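User: Fold this; tokens only.

Assistant: Input:
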Amino acid sequence: MRALLAGMLCALLWAATASAAAVVITNDRGGSVSGYRAKYAGYAAQGLKIRIEGPCLSACTLLTIYIPNDNICIMPAAVLGFHAERNGYGKEVTLNNIDSLSLTFEYPQDISNWLMNHGGSLQPEMVFMRYDDLRMLYRDCS
């Protein structure tokens, strides 16, 4: 009986630890939109929390679509960097204006509103949402 209770206690502690796990973002420059969508959909399914401690740029910002605000916390160095979707990497690339406009409105309403107040839909140049604006949406990690 003791062994059974001890096993159940261990399982409960493991489950509590797993559900409280956090992914820490310190300097994520983004990458493949489809790759980030898959990653964040997985994080959301696992109920993972996100701790933004530094720059989260480009495709990294897609976390705001998949992860509930309650599961995101920020530190003072946190910054989200948004830009128009691009076809390709590296040198000057073509902007995909239709996909960028669509993506602007795929973000949560508060992010979409912020983007519209800071240049309209996603623009070619990166637009940065810094700590002072982020703390209106997300709790501080400390």
